[in-house]
Amino acid sequence: MKPVTEETVELKLPSRLASIDEAAAGVTDAARRLGFPDDALYGVELAVREAVTNAVLHGNRRDESVPVEVGVADAGSEMVVTVRDRGEGFDPGSVADPTSEENLLKSSGRGILFMRTFMDDVRWERHPAGGTVVRMTKKK
Amino acid sequence: MKPVTEETVELKLPSRLASIDEAAAGVTDAARRLGFPDDALYGVELAVREAVTNAVLHGNRRDESVPVEVGVADAGSEMVVTVRDRGEGFDPGSVADPTSEENLLKSSGRGILFMRTFMDDVRWERHPAGGTVVRMTKKK
Amino acid sequence: MAELNIRERQAGDVTILDMDGKITIGEGSVSLRGAIRRLIEEGKKKILLNLSGVGYVDSSGIGELVSSYTTTSSKGGQLKLLNLTQKIQDLLAITKLLTVFDVYDDEASALNSFK
Amino acid sequence: MAELNIRERQAGDVTILDMDGKITIGEGSVSLRGAIRRLIEEGKKKILLNLSGVGYVDSSGIGELVSSYTTTSSKGGQLKLLNLTQKIQDLLAITKLLTVFDVYDDEASALNSFK
Ligand SMILES: Nc1ncnc2c1ncn2[C@@H]1O[C@H](COP(=O)(O)OP(=O)(O)O)[C@@H](O)[C@H]1O
Ligand SMILES: Nc1ncnc2c1ncn2[C@@H]1O[C@H](COP(=O)(O)OP(=O)(O)O)[C@@H](O)[C@H]1O
Predict the structure, then answer these.
(1) Do B14 and A22 touch (CB under 8 A)?
(2) Residue A71 reports pLDDT greater than 80
(3) Which of A85, B7, B101, D26 could cross-link to A55 by cystine, CB 3.0-4.6 Å?
């Protein structure tokens, strides 16, 4: 038996700040269609904002000719959101913990914490065709 | 100067009737985000329903392992919606006119008429990688 | 919730179907087809479809209205439409079906027309 | 409409900023930064941020609240928070910033605390 096609949504956006709102709205709409309740949408939206912010600023350095690609896939019991940039990536293991005493007064460095808080699983991968993909999973 | 990335939304859906609602909601949400007023959304939704119905029934013959791919692109002054199936295509020029006297009492054959009525331009193309694409343009 | 809810009323020998929801490909069209088939089998041949609660119709739904009409006519019956929303009225105009269907916007005149 | 609207009120020597909208990357964060910078330049060093109308904050917005706090403190001033929504309160808990900020949920007590 051939497998049923998985439902997916893909957004392709220029690397600029306005794309953060676009991506947040696009993924929130898709998550609503997949049946997520309103109070889960808030966290999904925030995680997507943080991931797209990182793709625009750190991955693609606001080069508007380079796309940020956002994917939403319905994997039955969970939704998988991916955000791909065209950057060199980074080592998530060596990112400073923003909640440790010496970092509390820093003005940045809390995005990944929010992604991890509001999604059930967050991981980074190299894309085979180049760039970095953050893959975030949220259970229904 | 390198061109700014064009904003796009892509939906990939299994070839079954339930995908018609999914596609209609996905494109309507995207069109709303692109600023189309509510009364334009009705016609866009109907055109998308008809195009996806044709892709599911005629193009892919309800083979759920084969995808229907729906694209929405913001081309500035207009929105371009594409629906791709994996079928052999057809000759739009030889489709019967559903409004001519002898066809009025037929129970089908009005989908393309609705697509043409509610979108500003509708055309069919072969996809280079196989299948048929209907490309529908709606001015903002 | 079903896509299309159909309630049946009798006014003399006219059967009125009050419909609520969407007549679109799949469930909606199938419900309408089933309802008409049943009425014809029961010998109820004067049928008035009250579409005031039908907010959405696609080409399959329009096709199903046409089938309902031709099926009823072919059994010597009559099928008429009541209370079209603006959107359905527009679709019937686009498809040139306003000349085919007998359309009413008040129930009394519709019922009278079956006499 | 601006992402973040900021209105300024004076209560004795305390400046209250009533904020409405979103503190997110870009416009929202930039408006807040500008407002704090201006107050500091004007020598207004007792600042109360009323966040009751702020429905959305991202990590950039939280960072901007922290910067507002450190900038004010470094000039010998005080910056406190009033009327957090549940969502902002949660984000401050997650980031362990509830221990850093002085947070109030009624204006009178907040104003009193500056004495
Ligand atoms: N997509 C990315 N590409 C490259 N570096 C990244 C990416 N995402 C995160 N980082 C790195 O991880 C750090 C922490 O990210 P984050 O927690 O979101 O905080 P912030 O973006 O405010 O610094 C960033 O400063 C950056 O160095
Ligand atoms: N994507 C498609 N692939 C193959 N044939 C198609 C496709 N779209 C439309 N057609 C052909 O055009 C005809 C008219 O389509 P349409 O006006 O939508 O009415 P209907 O689908 O009710 O027949 C169809 O019956 C079919 O033969």
Answers:
(1) no
(2) yes
(3) A85
Report how far residue D14's alpha carbon sits from residue D107's, in angstroms, rounded to the nearest whole number.
11
pLDDT for the residue B10: 94
CA pair distance D6, D36, nearest whole angstrom: 11
Looking only at the bridges linking them, the beta strands covering C103-104 and C78-82 are parallel
Q: Say which DSSP state D52 is in.
A: E
Q: How many C-alpha atoms does C103 have within 13 Å on its Cβ side?
A: 17
Neighbours of A105 (CB within 10 A): 13
Main-chain dihedrals φ then ψ at residue A70, nearest 5 degrees? -115, 130
Residue of A nearest to B21 (CA): A33
Chain D interface, mutation test: which of A48, A49, A97, A107, most D Cβ atoms within 10 Å? Answer: A107
Chain C contact for B42, CB < 8 A? yes
Q: Which long-range contacts (CB under 8 A, 24 or more apart) does A113-118 make?
A: A113/D59, A113/D94, A113/D95, A114/A46, A114/A47, A114/A50, A114/D58, A114/D59, A114/D91, A114/D94, A115/A47, A115/A50, A115/A51, A117/A43, A117/D94, A118/A42, A118/A43, A118/A44, A118/A46, A118/A47
Least confident of C36-40, D1-5, D54-58: D1-5
Given a cut of 80, whether residue B77 has pLDDT beyond it is yes
Nearest CA in chain A to B62: A4
Q: What is the CA radius of gyration of chain D?
A: 13
Place of tokens 């990688």: B129
Q: Is residue A2 pLDDT above 90, yes or no?
A: no
Q: What is the distance in angstroms between the Cα of A130 and the nearest Cα belonging to chain D?
A: 27
Rounded Cα–Cα distance for residues C108 and B59 (Å): 46
Query: What per-residue confidence (pLDDT) applies to C115?
Result: 79
Which residue in C24, D18, D16 sits closest to B49, CA to CA?
A: C24
Helix (H) or strand (E) holding D35: helix D27-41
Q: Which pLDDT score, from 0 to 100, does residue B76 have? A: 86
**ipTM, 2 decimals?**
0.82
Burial class of residue A39 in the structure, from the number of CB atoms within 10 Å of its CB (0-12 exposed, 13-18 middle, 19+ buried): exposed
pTM (2 d.p.) = 0.85
Helices C27-41 and C59-74, packing angle to 10 deg: 10
Place of tokens 């019967």: B96
- The answer to whether the CB of D62 falls within 8 A of the CB of D34 is no
Q: Residues D7-66: pLDDT tens digits?
A: 999 999 999 999 999 999 999 999 999 999 999 999 999 999 999 999 999 999 999 999
Task: Indicate whether D113 pLDDT > 90.
Answer: yes
Asked if residue D21 lies in contact with residue D3, where contact means CB atoms within 8 angstroms, the answer is yes
Whether B1 has a pLDDT exceeding 70, the answer reads no
**What Å distances lie between residue C105 and C65, C67, C80, C87, C101, CA to CA?**
17, 22, 11, 14, 13
Ligand nearest to the CA of B61: 2
